[in-house]
Design goal:
Blueprint (H helix, E strand, L loop, with lengths): L3 E5 L6 E11 H5 L3 E8 L2 E8 L1 H10 L5 H18 L7 E3 L2 H15 L17 H5 L9
Parallel strand pairs: 4-5
Antiparallel strand pairs: 1-2, 2-3, 3-4
Length: 143
């Protein structure tokens, strides 16, 4: 899905390979009420900032939470659309609004059917779930 994808820049035609690299709560790093999702785009860093208020609004509106996996997919979907629509201008940081986060969350969940169908992160081996590769399973999760 959107943790590792290719996109073509609308204006230059350049092929871009985008890979999720990490998720950081920005309060610690830049004193922002946001969660920053880092991607490598053709080897260079690009950050997508999701406002933390989006987590509260998602729970209030839908009764469901934004998981770490879903947050990465939301940011990746946003980045892919920015590149393909021509909104991408080579910046290293993009800030999403609460409404954009919720819109992309709904679209991602609709694409996969349920958050349990989202790819695990980190991607260690595309043929094996990270939990299986690392032998980590939470109580109540299938082994």
């Amino acid at each position: 899905m959107y943790e590792d994808f290719k996109a073509t820049d609308r204006w230059t035609g350049e092929k871009l390979h985008c890979q999720w690299k990490g998720t950081i709560v920005a309060i610690a790093t830049r004193h922002a009420d946001a969660t920053d999702i880092r991607f490598s785009v053709n080897g260079g860093p690009v950050w997508i900032s999701l406002p933390n208020l989006a987590w509260v609004e998602q729970k209030r509106r839908t009764g469901h939470v934004i998981t770490d996996y879903l947050a990465a997919q939301i940011a990746g979907r946003y980045l892919k659309q920015a590149i393909e629509s021509g909104y991408d201008n080579g910046r290293e940081m993009y800030a999403m609004t609460v409404d954009e986060v919720l819109e992309h969350a709904g679209a991602v969940v609709q694409e996969v059917g349920h958050t349990s169908n989202l790819p695990s992160l980190p991607v260690i081996n595309e043929n094996i779930r990270a939990e299986d590769e690392m032998g980590i399973h939470l109580p109540g999760e299938p082994a």
